[in-house]
Design brief:
heterotrimer; A alpha/beta; B mainly alpha; C alpha+beta; B: mainly alpha; MetI-like fold; two-stranded antiparallel sheet; 2 strands; C: alpha+beta; Rossmann fold; OB fold (Dihydrolipoamide Acetyltransferase, E2P); 2 domains; six-stranded mixed sheet; 8 helices; 20 strands; disordered C terminus
C-alpha cells in the first residue's frame, strides 16, 4: 500500500503538522496573502521589492511572510493537504523540491489567464504547477591567479595539475555528483559514470567542506582553487572579494530554478495569483539579479550590461543549459547520498 | 497533590512519548523516493543498519567519542568541581554563574569560535607560523581531536556543576577525619571523597554521555564532512535523502544504545556505591 | 614530660586575630579543657593542634617533636569531631579500621584492634551497621572508638557532647572521663559548657577573644578567679564594679557601701561574691537592704533574685526547712543581705568587663 494522503496524515506527518502548522499562527483574511518563504536575503528582498511596493501600495493587499526553511515548508504542505483551509497562499521552493511536492497533486495549475506575466517567461522554464521566480546555472568557479589557462568544463577538475586544489561543499553532494556524471559522459538522466569519476577525484585529494561558507573561506585563503557552484553564489562571493572567475561548462550547465506555486487549499487564491504575477515584474527581477546574482526568468527584464556580463548567460551559453530530470533525480537521491557518504567521503 | 503532576505528565506524553511511538512506526515503513514512504511492517531497515559496515563504523565512532569525552570531562571536571564546592569566598555564586557562562552561547556559535582558533589560517596556526615554529599550517580542524575538544568545551559545565553540588554535600570534617587518622590527600580522595561523590559521578557521566552521543553541530562543524557521528547521519537520512524510515531507524538505534550504556553504567555504579 | 606543648601560638585571619599568645602544656595522661564562649579561639587552637589550621606564629610540640608545620596525617592525634564525621559509606568496623589501615597494620592485628576499640565503647555487636543506622549516641561512641583505635599520642575532642540530649550528655561525660583515665590518654577537649569542663577536666583553660585568661584546676578557678570574666564564666558570681576606700569599704558605682577585708588595696575594682556565700534574712535590719524580685526553686537549691537599689543580686541556698521564716518569702518582700567579708574577692577593674557575656 502506498502512502495516500490519509495514511500520510495518520501516520507520518500528523505530529509534525501539529508543530509546524501551529507555529506562525497566521490566519489570512481576504485582503491578505500568506507567503511561505525563506528568511534571510530572499525573504528580505521579497518584502522590499514585492510585498511593500507592489502588493501593499498598489494592490492594498497585506503580505504576511511565513518564514521557514524548505523542509518544514514541504512537510507543512504535505501535512495540510487534507485540510480544506490551508495556512499558506504562496509556497516558495527550489525546482526539485517543488517537483517532489507537486507529485502529491498539491498545487493549483498556473496559466497565463491567471498570471498574465507567464507570457513573458522563457518557454523552457515554464511549468504547469509553478512560476519560475529566479534561476541560476551550475558552473565551474576558479581562481584566475592560480588556474591557468582557464578551465573549459567540469572535466578540468580532474586535471592532475590541480591535485588537492579541488574543493566541494558537502551539502551540494547532489550537484557535485551531477558534475561528475557530466564529466564522465553521463547526463542528468544517467548518473552512472559519476561513481568512477568521484573515486578518481578522491584519489586526487579533493577537499570537502561542511558548508558553502566553509568552501568560500577556503577559496578566499587560496587553500583550494577550483569548485562547482551556482553562478549566483559565485557572483556574491566575487562581490565579497574572493578572487574568482566562472566558466559555463562545455558539458552543459544544470539549471536551478527557485519557483513559487499556490496550494489548492489556499484561502486567498486571487491575491496569490496577483503575488505570482508581481514576482515576475521586470523591476523586481532586476533587483534580485543585482542583489543575489540570480538571472531573471522573463524576457523583458533587461539587466544593466555590466551586471549582465557577470551573471547572465550569452546565447551560446544559454544553449548549454540543461533541464533537470526531476523524476530521475528524486529516485536516485538516496543512492547518490549513500555513495557520497560511504565511498567518496570514506 | 497528585493532580499537580498531570500537566507535566501530559506534556511528556504529548511531546516525548507520542512522537517517539510515531518514529518507531515510521522506522518499520519502507522508503520510496517518489512517495516518501510505503507503509509496511518490516525490520529491513534495522537489519540494513546493523549489518552495513558503514553504519557500524559510524556507531563505533559515536560510542568511542562519547565514552572518551565522558571520561576526559570527568577527569578535567572533578578538580574544578572540588575547588568550586570547597571555596569559601563571597565570589562563589559569581564563579558558579561564570561556570554556566559557556552555556549561554549556542553550540554553533561556540564551534565557530573553535573554527577561528583551529582553522588553517586560525589563531593557533597563524601564531605558530608567525613565530616560525612551523612552516605549513597544522591540520587542527576537521580532526577527531577537534571534535573531542569542542564537545568537552560544551559538556564540561554540566559535569562540573553536577559534581560540585554533590561534593558540597560531603562534610569537610569527613575529609579532615580521614587525614587525622593518617590518610594522605591521595588516599583521602580515593577512600572518602570519590566514593561519596559517586552519585554525582554517575549523574554527571550519564548526562554528559547522553549529550555526547547526540552531538550534532560540533561533529559537523569541527569534524568536517568526512567525520560521521550518529546524529548527523540521522539528519542526513531525514533531510537530505528524504528517507524517513531509515532515519527513524538510525534514531532508534542511537536511542537504544544510549539507553543500554546509561542503564548498565548506572547499575554498575549503584552496585559499587552499595558495597 | 609534657605530651603536648603549645608555645606562644597565634592565628590571624587577615587583620582578625583569632588566637594570640597561647602557652599551654598538657601532661601525660592529663585531660585539659579549653573553655570559653563561641568565638573565643578555643576551636581554632584545637584545629591548629590537629593540623587543620596553619599557625601564624608559635610552636606545637607533640611528644617533644615539633609538628608546627607537619600535615595532619603525620601528627598522630586522634580527634573526635563535633559532628562525629563518620564515613557514611563504611560500616562501623570499617570506620574504626580506617586509621589502623593507614598505619599499615596487618589484617589480623587490625581486626583485633577494631574489636577492642568497639568493646571499649560497648558497640562490638553493631560492627556491621552503617553509621546512618545508629542513634546519635551510638555514632558518638563510634567516633570515640575510631579515634581511640589508633592509640594516638594526643586525644582531641571538639565539643563532643553538644549534639546529645541533656540526659545522655552527663552519662557520656562520665564514660569519656573514665575511659580517658583508664587508658591514661593525654587529652585536649574544647567546650563552651562550664559544667562539662568542671566535671571532666584535670585543668581548665579559660579563653576569651583569642587569649588565655587563666589556667588552673576547677577549684582554683572557682575560688580564686583571676578576673571578672573567669569568675562569671566558671560558676555564677555577683560582680559589681566600684571603688575600694581605705578601711575595708567598697563603694559601688550606684552609691552602695559593702564591707570588704580591711587590708584591701584602695582603687577601682570589681567586687565578686558567689551567690551561696550570701546570707538572707526577712525584713530590714543588719546588712544591705533589698527587695525580692524573683524566686527560683531548683530542687536541691533555691535562688533568690534580690533588687538592691536597682541592681540584681543573686543569692542561692538549700531550700529552707518548713519552719523557717524564709519559707514565707515572696516577691516584693523586704530582705537584708549579709556575708562574711573573707568570702569577698576583689578583682582587677576592666572597663569592658561584662561578666562573661558577649557584647
Amino acid at each position: 500500500m502506498t502512502i495516500t494522503r490519509r495514511t500520510m496524515l495518520t501516520t507520518g506527518a500528523a505530529a509534525m503538522a501539529a508543530y509546524t502548522a501551529g507555529l506562525p499562527g497566521v490566519r489570512a483574511q481576504s485582503s491578505q496573502v500568506v507567503v511561505g518563504t525563506w528568511g534571510g536575503d530572499y525573504g528580505q528582498l521579497l518584502g522590499d521589492l514585492i510585498d511593500k511596493p507592489i502588493m501593499k501600495t498598489k494592490g492594498g493587499i497585506e503580505v504576511l511572510q511565513d518564514i521557514a526553511n524548505a523542509d518544514p515548508r514541504k512537510t507543512k504542505l504535505l501535512a495540510e493537504k487534507q485540510s480544506r483551509r490551508g495556512t499558506m497562499d504562496v509556497a516558495c521552493l527550489s525546482d526539485s523540491d517543488m517537483y517532489l511536492t507537486a507529485q502529491q497533486d498539491l498545487f493549483e495549475p498556473v496559466t497565463a489567464d491567471k498570471v498574465s506575466r507567464m507570457n513573458a517567461v522563457f518557454p523552457n522554464l515554464q511549468k504547469a504547477y509553478a512560476i519560475p521566480h529566479i534561476y541560476s546555472a551550475q558552473v565551474v568557479l576558479y581562481n584566475p591567479n592560480k588556474v591557468n589557462p582557464a578551465p573549459k568544463g567540469f572535466a578540468d577538475l580532474w586535471d592532475p595539475k590541480w591535485r588537492g586544489r579541488v574543493g566541494f561543499s558537502d551539502i551540494l553532494y547532489s550537484a557535485n555528483t551531477v558534475a561528475a556524471a557530466l564529466a564522465g559522459g553521463g547526463s542528468l538522466s544517467n548518473y552512472g559514470p559519476s561513481q568512477k569519476k568521484l573515486m578518481e577525484l578522491r584519489s586526487l585529494d579533493a577537499k570537502i567542506y561542511p558548508s558553502n561558507e566553509a568552501l568560500a573561506a577556503a577559496l578566499k585563503s587560496e587553500e583550494v582553487w577550483i569548485t562547482v557552484m551556482w553562478l549566483a553564489r559565485g557572483f556574491m562571493w566575487k562581490k565579497a572579494g574572493i578572487p574568482l572567475e566562472h566558466v559555463v561548462p562545455s558539458e552543459g550547465a544544470p539549471a536551478i530554478v527557485f519557483e513559487a506555486s499556490i496550494p489548492k487549499n489556499s484561502r486567498n487564491k486571487d491575491n496569490a495569483f496577483k503575488y505570482l504575477n508581481a514576482m515576475l515584474e521586470p523591476q523586481a527581477q532586476i533587483a534580485f539579479a543585482d542583489k543575489m546574482g540570480y538571472v531573471p526568468t522573463v524576457k523583458d527584464a533587461a539587466l544593466p550590461p555590466d551586471l549582465a556580463k557577470q551573471i547572465n548567460l550569452n546565447e551560446a551559453e544559454r544553449a548549454r543549459l540543461l533541464q533537470p530530470d526531476y523524476d530521475y533525480a528524486v529516485k536516485n537521491n538516496a543512492a547518490i547520498l549513500d555513495f557520497w557518504n560511504k565511498q567518496f567521503k570514506a | 497533590m497528585a493532580v499537580l503532576i498531570v500537566p507535566a505528565s501530559l506534556l511528556v506524553l504529548g511531546l516525548l512519548v507520542a512522537p517517539m511511538l510515531l518514529m518507531l512506526r515510521i522506522s518499520l515503513n519502507q522508503f520510496s523516493p517518489t512517495q516518501m514512504m510505503i507503509e509496511a511492517m518490516s525490520a529491513d531497515n534495522y537489519i540494513r543498519a546493523v549489518t552495513d559496515p558503514y553504519y557500524q563504523q559510524v556507531l563505533g565512532t559515536t560510542l568511542g567519542i562519547a565514552l572518551l569525552c565522558t571520561l576526559l570531562t570527568l577527569i578535567l571536571g572533578f578538580p574544578a568541581a572540588y575547588w568550586l564546592a570547597r571555596i569559601e569566598s563571597r565570589w562563589k555564586s559569581l564563579i558558579t554563574i561564570l561556570t554556566l557562562f559557556p552555556l549561554l552561547v549556542g553550540n554553533v556559535v561556540r564551534s565557530a569560535g573553535w573554527m577561528a582558533l583551529l582553522g588553517n589560517d586560525g589563531l593557533i596556526n597563524a601564531t605558530l607560523l608567525w613565530l616560525g615554529i612551523i612552516s605549513a599550517p597544522l591540520k587542527l580542524m576537521y580532526t577527531p581531536q577537534a571534535v573531542v575538544i569542542g564537545i568537552i568545551a560544551v559538556v564540561l559545565p554540566y559535569m562540573i556543576l553536577t559534581l560540585a553540588s554533590v561534593i558540597e554535600s560531603i562534610p569537610r570534617s569527613v575529609e579532615e577525619a580521614a587525614a587525622n587518622l593518617g590518610a594522605r590527600p591521595g588516599t583521602v580522595f580515593r577512600r572518602v571523597v570519590l566514593p561519596l561523590a559517586l552519585p554525582g559521578v554517575a549523574a554527571g557521566s550519564i548526562l554528559v554521555f547522553v549529550l555526547c552521543m547526540n552531538t550534532y553541530a560540533t561533529a559537523i562543524l569541527l569534524g568536517g564532512p568526512q567525520f560521521k557521528m550518529m546524529a548527523p547521519a540521522v539528519y542526513d537520512q531525514f533531510i537530505r535523502a528524504n528517507n524517513w524510515p531509515f532515519g527513524a531507524t538510525l534514531a532508534f538505534i542511537l536511542l537504544a544504545i544510549t539507553m543500554i550504556f546509561t542503564i548498565v553504567g548506572s547499575i554498575g555504579i549503584a552496585r559499587r556505591y552499595k558495597r | 614530660m609534657a605530651q603536648l606543648k603549645l608555645s606562644n601560638l597565634a592565628k590571624h585571619f587577615g587583620a582578625a586575630v583569632a588566637v594570640e599568645h597561647v602557652d599551654l602544656e598538657v601532661r601525660d595522661g592529663e585531660l585539659v579543657a579549653l573553655l570559653g564562649p563561641s568565638g573565643c579561639g578555643k576551636t581554632t587552637t584545637l584545629r591548629m593542634v590537629a593540623g587543620f589550621v596553619e599557625p601564624t606564629a608559635g610552636q606545637i610540640l607533640i611528644g617533644g617533636k615539633d609538628v608546627t608545620h607537619a600535615p595532619p596525617y603525620a601528627r598522630d592525634t586522634g580527634m573526635v569531631f563535633q559532628s562525629y564525621a563518620l564515613f557514611p559509606h563504611m560500616s562501623v568496623a570499617q570506620n574504626v579500621a580506617f586509621g589502623l589501615e593507614m598505619r599499615r597494620m596487618g589484617r589480623a592485628e587490625r581486626e583485633q584492634g577494631v574489636l577492642e576499640a568497639l568493646k571499649l565503647v560497648k558497640l562490638d555487636h553493631l560492627a556491621e551497621r552503617l553509621p546512618r543506622e545508629l542513634s546519635g549516641g551510638q555514632q558518638q561512641r563510634v567516633a570515640l572508638a575510631r579515634a581511640l583505635a589508633v592509640n594516638p599520642s594526643v586525644f582531641l575532642l571538639d565539643e563532643p557532647l553538644s549534639n546529645l540530649d541533656a540526659k545522655l550528655r552527663s552519662e557520656v561525660r562520665l564514660q569519656i572521663r573514665s575511659l580517658q583515665q583508664r587508658l591514661g590518654l593525654t587529652t585536649l577537649i574544647v567546650t563552651h559548657d562550664q559544667e562539662e569542663a568542671l566535671t571532666m577536666a584535670d585543668r581548665l583553660v579559660v579563653m576569651d577573644r583569642g587569649k588565655v585568661l587563666q589556667v588552673g584546676t576547677a577549684e582554683e578557678l572557682y575560688e580564686r578567679p583571676a578576673n571578672a570574666f573567669v569568675a562569671g564564666f566558671v560558676g555564677r558570681c555577683n560582680l559589681i564594679s566600684g571603688f575600694v576606700d581605705p578601711g575595708g569599704v567598697f563603694r559601688t558605682d550606684w552609691g552602695g557601701e559593702f564591707a570588704v577585708p580591711q587590708e584591701s588595696a584602695p582603687g577601682k575594682a570589681i567586687f565578686a561574691l558567689r551567690p551561696e556565700r550570701v546570707a538572707l534574712r526577712p525584713g530590714t535590719g543588719h546588712g544591705i537592704p533589698g527587695r525580692i524580685s524573683a524566686i527560683t526553686y531548683l530542687g536541691s537549691l533555691s535562688e533568690y533574685h534580690v533588687d538592691v537599689s536597682g541592681n540584681s543580686f543573686l543569692v542561692s541556698m538549700p531550700p529552707p526547712p518548713n519552719d523557717s521564716p524564709l519559707r514565707c518569702l515572696k516577691i516584693g518582700d523586704q530582705v537584708s543581705l549579709t556575708w562574711d567579708v573573707a568570702a569577698v574577692r576583689l578583682l582587677p577593674f576592666e572597663p569592658s568587663s561584662n561578666q562573661g557575656e558577649e557584647p
